[in-house]
Amino acid sequence: MANIQQLTSIEQWNQALEMSSSKPLLVFKHSTSCSVSAGAHEELMHFIEDGQTGPVEYAIVHVIEDRPVSNAIAEQLGIKHASPQAIFVKDGQPVWDTSHWHITYSFLTEKLGTSVNNS
To answer: Which CATH class is domain 4-118?
Structure first.
């Protein structure tokens, strides 16, 4: 199973962003007090546990507890904040993002297969 790095500092975020040049990164912005986010988190974890993820790094940001990191991600990538939110980053640039009920097992399977293999 792939590891998920919890980003708690802007330095960790900057390092993860830099590393996306060698391996794509999926960032999951998670609100620990939201039922929609809990559902999206469950879908993501199920997807990762199935091991069909390909060469992708995973990071999670708890948007309430680590708001400066969440804000830095939105600002640096030029993507309006949402939570839950999944952002796929390659070579330091966002490839796609989605939020809320769109973060499902089938969506992740479709997008990561396409993005990883064809980018």
So the answer is: alpha beta
